[in-house]
Amino acid sequence: MLLYSPHSTPRLQYVIGFISKELFDEPIVITTDKEAFLQAEGFRLNYSDAEFSEEDFYIRRTLLLFEKDIRPKEIDCFELNYYKVFFETAGDLPFDIFAASFYLLSRYEEYLLHEKDEYPRYLHTQSLAYRERFLNMPLINIWLQELKKALVKKFPGMVFRHPSFKFIPTYDIDMAYSYLHKGWKRNIGGFLRSVGSGQWSAALERIRVLRGKQRDPFDAFEWLDSLHLYCRMKAYYFFLVAGEKSLYDKNISPAKKPMVELIRYHAAGYRVGVHPSWQSGDDEALLATEIDCMASITDKKTVMSRQHYIRFTLPETYRRLIQYGIGEDFSMGYGSINGFRASVASSFYWYDLEKEEQTSLRLFPFCFMDATAYYEQKYTHSQAMTELMQYYHLIRKVNGLMVTIWHNSFLGSDPVFDGWKKLYEIFLKEEVYWDV
User: In terms of CB atoms within 10 Å, which end of the chain has fewer, N or C?
Assistant: First the structure.
């Protein structure tokens, strides 16, 4: 398909490239030559200020993709076929799908002046998706289905690609073990705290685990191996390898042999990445050290990451990841609420809005995290299952990508998380059908 625009900008090229990948096997070609466009044969899309012919698919452009600055936008949402849209315009679609998709994919609003939460992260309540109540929807994918219907109406012979639903199970290993390999000081301190607060069962459990009489309550690794084998899934693991312990970084030291062996074991059978520590958010040198640490342990280049506590700031965090060789990041979501931060259930390349360029960093957005459902949303495991199934059905309907985050601590035997392991097993084995 040929697309005419009076100007070709990096923003326009970026969003058209994304939509081409989602809808077609061949890329949409952009031209700024009006005469060449009018003389061209085949399917034509006019993205300009004036309609040329009823034979063309026409979307009257808005200005976002042709601006070079970042400024607050007055956005008025309205409904189209029961879904929210914005940037109202005229033509064969009543809204500028290109500009609206770019606004959401680029995380435009996160470059504007905003408040941060306690961690500190972009506060999800400031987002358009939260305010307009579409945070729980892969809205861009839904829009693309509407575009597809409109194109077929105009061009009955148009051929589209047929993507399949895809699921990627991912795990953050923030704390590999509850008691094991933590050293005698941490274990004695933990034991005394349990006794002092009257938690005798926890104190006795610690002793049994350390004596080898009971499996560590966070050790769900063999069980996960069996689950992945049964479901024929290839999982992704992200390991926290902070050299120094802090308030938010409490994993086993990567210098300890058991931790090295655990990472190497998973690197041999799964895709593994780094889980940049909380401390690395304030110290860029630590990020480089942790990426190098993972590479040294696995004897492979570290190319995947997910930020611990989903702590990232645009554009600084992503620029650092690119600088140190990360090509795929799985942090695009909120740590404070589940849903679709970028309103999409597809992978996409990060657009650096300040530099006005598409980067090499590919983002894999997640829609659900166990810790968010439990700690932030205060869900029971039953409520979490309802939410999971809601996202599953929505994403499957648009043949999108579903990424979930789980922690080994939720999937072990810790009574605090009773019921969550069974929830996950049922979700993978019985409730859904995976195309893998």
Answer: C
